[in-house]
């Protein structure tokens, strides 16, 4: 089982979500992730979110729904920049679903290092 506190954490002004290969995409996991996200999003310095999609499971409608919920919650706390990290097609699929939320700017990168460079600039 994945420790949600290790999956979602704050680094400076960024909420980083590290979704590991073995992460299961269940309702229980989604609920824990969204609860932790909201807890971290309330920190005043946080204005950016990085999602590092490393899980092997395919993205499905539940993932897209939960991602949209997270983006809406993030907007409520002033988090409008979202960087999606994935070497494969997952980042494009997620952007196609979440990218239409007004006020949320999404960048796509291949590595976490690129994501950190993006938010540092």
Automatic annotation (TrEMBL):
It comes from Haloarcula terrestris. It comes from the Archaea. This is Uncharacterized protein.
């Amino acid at each position: 089982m994945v420790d949600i506190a290790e999956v979602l954490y704050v680094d400076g002004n960024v909420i980083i979500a590290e979704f590991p290969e073995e992460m299961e995409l269940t309702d229980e996991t989604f609920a824990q992730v969204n609860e932790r996200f909201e807890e971290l999003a309330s920190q005043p310095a946080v204005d950016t979110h990085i999602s590092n999609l490393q899980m092997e499971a395919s993205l499905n409608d539940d993932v897209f729904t939960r991602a949209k919920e997270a983006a809406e919650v993030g907007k409520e706390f002033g988090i409008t920049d979202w960087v999606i990290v994935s070497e494969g097609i997952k980042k494009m699929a997620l952007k196609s679903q979440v990218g239409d939320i007004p006020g949320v700017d999404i960048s796509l990168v291949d590595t976490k290092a690129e994501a950190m460079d993006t938010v540092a600039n």
